[in-house]
Amino acid sequence: MTNGLWALAIVVLFAPLLVDGSAEPVDFIRANDLASVRFYVAMKENKQPRDVGMIGLGSMGFGVARSLLRAGFRTHGYDVRKETLSQFSAEGGIACDSPAAVGSACDVVIVLVVNAEQTESVVFAEAGAASAMRPGGVVIASATVAPSYPAELGRRLAERKLWLLDAPVSGGAAKAASGQMTMMTSGPPEAYAACEDVLAAISAQVYRLGEALGLGSKIKIINQLLAGVHIAAAAEAMALGIREGVDPQALYDVITHSAGNSWMFENRVPHIIASDFRPLSAVDIFVKDLGLVLDTARATKFPLPLSAAAHQMFMMASAAGHGREDDSAVIKIFPGIKID
């Protein structure tokens, strides 16, 4: 069905409810999200909800899982943390004891873990998802990885008659939970065709960058270059302001209404002002991601001086024991400042 026909379905299905005032369709359907409508149509046609797998229930992955549940998918999840699985189950998810258990139940499996090594483990280990998935299934790989990795991952999945969508994401935990992530994707048309409804449920924007696996990951690491440099610059600016006796809240208010603002400044500096370094995205994430950026550029001898400086800042913070704190804790490398 085209989006236009789905829009017509909304009117046809919910017009009677609007007339008698017995329901509020807007509570059921988010703007620009047709996944809930598809689920409702499936129920009207006596079809079972679709089974979708979610491997990795961190701050981003759990948000994605919540979006899938809200859209009506039977969502199967796996994470190494038992307490996270218990919370997932309490919210309506189906907790699985291994990636293979997720794969055996689902034709679409989203993998949103930290890196390529973890992706390898949950997909190809003895109890990995690929060993149990049916031919024609799709793995949506959303970890931030080196751009060379997805092609190899796709080749190995193809040997098992499985499709791969290279699909790193951006937007943070809040947008993951609201189904408004940005997805930078590449892969074969067959992969998209098999999971369009899933992508619609978890994202506000899906960029289709081509069929070559790795195109999505190339753009993701460039995004991470900018994100990491902006966080490091925001921390440096706030550190200077604090050292010079400027009120941190006043500095934040002025900068967010001035040309020096950035999305990362606006989003991360409140963590610094509140001295709240509980991790949404950790310092060590940018040690890894900026490392990927520099490795990619080094292969062609391309200079990235700002990225290198930012990477060293996150490395210093991690070495000082702040690796698992929020990435805004990079401000702690600056001497002579007090963060209340």
What would you call the shape? Answer: globular
CATH topology grouping of the largest domain: Rossmann fold
Within CATH, the superfamily of the largest domain carries the name: NAD(P)-binding Rossmann-like Domain
Mean pLDDT across residues: 90
Low-confidence stretches: 1-46
Number of domains: 2
Helix/strand class: alpha/beta
**Alpha-carbon distance between the two ends:** 55 Å
Q: Strands across the major sheet, in which order?
A: 3-2-1-4-5-6
Number of strands: 9
Q: Largest sheet, described in full?
A: 6 strands, parallel
CATH class of the largest domain: Alpha Beta
The tally of helices reads 14
Order of helices and strands: HHEHEHEHEHEHEEHEHEHHHHH
Write the layout of secondary structure elements.
Elements: H1 3-20, H2 35-44, E1 51-55, H3 59-70, E2 74-78, H4 82-90, E3 94-95, H5 99-105, E4 108-111, H6 116-124, E5 138-141, H7 149-158, E6 163-166, E7 169-170, H8 172-177, E8 181-185, H9 189-202, E9 203-208, H10 215-243, H11 248-255, H12 263-273, H13 283-298, H14 305-322
Parallel strand pairs: 1-2, 1-4, 2-3, 4-5, 5-6, 8-9
Antiparallel strand pairs: 7-8
